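Dear colleague,

Thank you for sharing your sequence with our group. We've completed the structure prediction you requested, and as agreed, I am returning the results in plain text so they can be pasted directly into your records. Please verify that the sequence below matches your submission; if there's any discrepancy, let me know and we will rerun it promptly.
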Amino acid sequence: MIVTPLDSAVLDSKEQYIFYHKKVDFVLKELIVSVQKENLCTSKELIFFKQYCDLLMYSIEAMRVKYMYDEEDNMKVDLTDSGFPNYLEFRYLFNDLSLRHNYIAKLKDVSELQEEFLNQLLHKKQPVRKDKLFQASSIVYYTSVEQKYIFNRFVQGKIIEAPETASAQFMISWSFYDVSHNRPFICFMYFDYDGKNVESCKNDIYDVLKSTADRDMNLDTMAYGIDRKLPDVRPKHIKRIDLGPFHNVFAKDENEITHAILKSIASKEIPLESYALSFKIHEVFSGSEFEEGGYFSKQVFQKWSDIIKQDYVFAPHRIIQLLYNKTPEIMNKLAKPPIEVANLKMN
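Please find the predicted structure tokens below.
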């Protein structure tokens, strides 16, 4: 898969990056609370949903520290249909941390850097130079950020027993960062297993999910691909959550919600920190089964229901009012009325 940074942009200043990072962190935390409050995930799904969001927040915070005082490089943000960092930023971060020991060996000693800071501030009465601050942030970054917690293109969850209320024996979760949309997706699959021990098959399941269900596609296509490649696995229910787009002042897409917010910010009807987050859940269920193949290569497949598509919007109260006025058709087609979240207040 070819990945390019063409759909991304560099923000105008470090102040804008500080603003951007605060917005993303705030919105993801609000999302976790609201998804639980609105029962959009089951209790078990919510545990994994929060874990994947935590990985996303951890990675974006690591980017903030990495680029804080770097005058040469800036984090690239997808402004077209996402609002999240460009996928390449996650890949760069992951690859960069694989060389952390090489970089740590080249960094100045902390005590030496502290001495320079004190001398500059107390004796010379001058602010610390940007290059020295970059050295300090690099020390923090390379000594505290763990590569294993970086949100990768594909993040695999473990197989666990499904809740008693589920219509299947097992449950598995995974997440991926779709490189065409530059947005995170979180998936759950409930399934039965015909073999003796599902643990003996787990690596096969993981491999198939990574190769078949690692990008945005029609959910029934994904379900059929998983079903075909895993003869002993009987998928019963697949649920996919799409986080985004994140509609905010930095966005430059053609989305009607984004345009409504940008126009209202431009006319000073609403403050710069105004935002909304689109959120989609797609689900398919297996109803019956059918057989394909000859006598010696017969395989049982699932017949899938129509895709159940549910769209949601999370926004503060003032933005919800605005969207009802500016985009009533979109608001009236949501699975439930827009879900109110807190305002972001910037100093």
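Summary note from our side: Strands lie at 8-10, 76-78, 154-161, 170-178, 183-193, 233-247, 276-292, 299-304, 308-315, 339-340.

Kind regards,
the structure core
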